[in-house]
Amino acid sequence: MTIGAITVAHVIEALIYTFAFVWAVRGLQIGDLRPSGPGTPDPTLMDYFYFSLVNFTTLGRGDLNPDGHLRFITGIEAFHGFLMITASGSFMLQVMGGKAPLSDTG
After folding, report:
1. Domain of 86: which CATH number?
2. Which of 8, 31, 34, 49 has minimal CB crowding within 10 Å?
3. pTM attached to this predicted model
4. What is the DSSP string of 24-81?
5. Does residue 34 lie in a domain region?
6. What pLDDT is recorded for position 105?
């Protein structure tokens, strides 16, 4: 149950970044997200979500490339994802060790 809750939390976090990317590109027009190949269509919402998940997990596939100020948001997301996934791993180790990480009696 803990793994499921952590997974859902991270997917929601990546979804928040997805909407930030879409807003930055389409609303604020401070950058762009482009597929690496020539002649490819504009990215869809699912492409933004995929990019966000790949970036949040620090996988960095490189098939979608940020441009402009989107590169800064991308770096922040990767750093945030690294911290959150590391903290989640530590939490899971405590749970698997039989400790109650969120209680005072631990």
Report:
1. 1.10.287.70
2. 8
3. 0.85
4. IIIIS--EEEEESSTTPPPP-HHHHHHHHHHHHTT----SEEEEETHHHHHHHHHHHH
5. yes
6. 61
